[in-house]
Amino acid sequence: MQAVPIHVRTFRLFSNRTRLIGNRPKKEEEASVNDVIQRLSAVDCISWCVYNKLMVREGIPFSLDGTPYLVDLVHRRERVVHIKKGAQVRCTTLKFLEQVHACLYGRYKQNVLYMMPTVKQVEALSRISFDPLLDCNLWLRRYVSVNTAALKTIAGRSIYFVGAQPQRVGGTNTKDSPSLRSIPCDCVLRDELDLMDEDMVELSRQRIRDSELKLECNFASPTYPGYGIDACYERSTQYKWHIKCRSCGRHTCLVEHFPDSIRRVDGRWRRSCVHCGAEVFVQDGHWEADYPDRPEAGFWVDGLLSPRADLEADMLRYHNSEGAARCEFMRSVLGIASVEANNQLTDKDIYERCCLDLMQYTSSVDTVMGADVGDVLHYVVGVRTGTEHYTVLRVGTAEDFGHLHEVAKQMRVKLCVLDAMPDIHASRKFQREEPYTVYRCHYSEQMPGEPKFDAKTGVVKCNRNEMCDKVYDLFASSRIRIPRLSGDIKEYARQMTQTAKTLITNPDTGLAKPKWVKLGDDHYFHATLYFLLACMRSSVVSLSDGHPSVRRFRRVKNTFYV
Q1: φ, ψ for residue 373 (rounded to 5)?
Q2: DSSP letters of 463-528?
Q3: Which stretches of 176-265 are DSSP H helices?
Q4: I need a surface site. Which of 65, 168, 298, 474 has the fewest CB within 10 A?
Q5: What does pTM read for this prediction?
Q6: How many angstroms separate the CA atoms of 53 and 2, rounded?
Q7: φ and ψ at 341, to 5 degrees?
Q8: Res 508 pLDDT > 70
Q9: Domain ranges within the chain, ordered by starting residue
Q10: How far apart are CA 403 and CA 392, in angstroms?
């Protein structure tokens, strides 16, 4: 069975596109495919490309044959679209053509901002993608009034190409960019989002404040888990391409079931149904959302879907790679954020710190607490049993700050460090109303040395990387004890493994520096970090024979050895 030609697919989608062009024709069933495409070409980028026989490059006509997954990526109803993708899956070309079409037919009242990480990449895109489009389609050239590397004006609407490289203002830490100022836009596209400065991404959003459309599209191959396009996708509808098997009728998502979805049969690697093993075909798939009610659309376009994917080479590369090479394969082929960790705790590291004591829900001694603030609050309560030794008595979650207050009361908490963000007002109110000392923690990437406690403001500032190092070193040694293994401890162990240390290269300077990055839910990791901060201001408690008692000692000012 052959793939459905793109013009037939466009015809089938006609009923879904009529909202863009008004009322449906009364005799739609009698209309020819050519008539339908001619009508749609004014409002639909794909139909326009097909009807005008657009040449992408010399000798290469526009075609989506073999890539039906790209059809639904244009003209979305959502204002914000995220595309997490593998390399060379044709998304960039399609989104670029969509903007050319929008300018040509006056879809925008203002302009388009197309962002790339650097100016050099902007110039390369202009030379490689736009110039051949004009050279091979002379009919399109007459609509272009300005054609420079940074500006393309088509039928009175402009596409601005800018590099997202920030500039320091007045020698301060404030960042700005003259190329992102004074450009009113209806649409902002960010190509390779993960390589852009986050401040420049936020600055680009200000360019669509006066727009009625306020369209944004981010697309990139992911880098680190929980960062850039991976973070955007996680908060979106999370569309995945599910392929229906012609044999058993069940569905397979290639990337979700990789490597079981790619099997070798009769000496040939093929896309396979994970249920019955039969060969499956990309054109039999459809997009299915995990969270269809979310306002931002997100698509995962992995490289296994591409008609030009060399499955044999991909599987050979996958099985013969490890470390950095394996991480690069996961990112560039599968579109999976991956990191080669220099330091990362394992489940074994956590379980080896379990003792025979049950989780405690009341305490007869004074304790300290660390709490991470989020949709729910994750807390870690315990004591310092020596200058370099610690015992965790209780871990858990609280629905709100009122619940956290009750936990603190039960555990006789005398000092707490909690996350100052993201709910600043609630954390300040909690700090103000609690009957014991509460510090709100602010992370810093630049501040070296020991954490700085300010009793007047109730704020503690610390270097994030250095404190994460201390959490890792503590569990990698045998200087902390946690309660007996249980369901809560299993979840605690899982979250403790979701932060890892790796080397990140600064795109502006090319310098690599170590950084702890988030791999998933890591609330307990940070709650433990705050617990260690609280221990810095607490006395040593002796726990012996089940009868805890306080052992007085000479406090060493602001010292913390791990």
Answers
A1: -95, 130
A2: EHHHHHHHHHHHHHTT-EEBPPS-HHHHHHHHHHTSEEEEEEE-TTT--EEEEEEE-S--HHHHHH
A3: 198-205, 229-234
A4: 168
A5: 0.64
A6: 22
A7: -85, 130
A8: no
A9: 1-52, 65-236, 239-289, 344-550
A10: 19
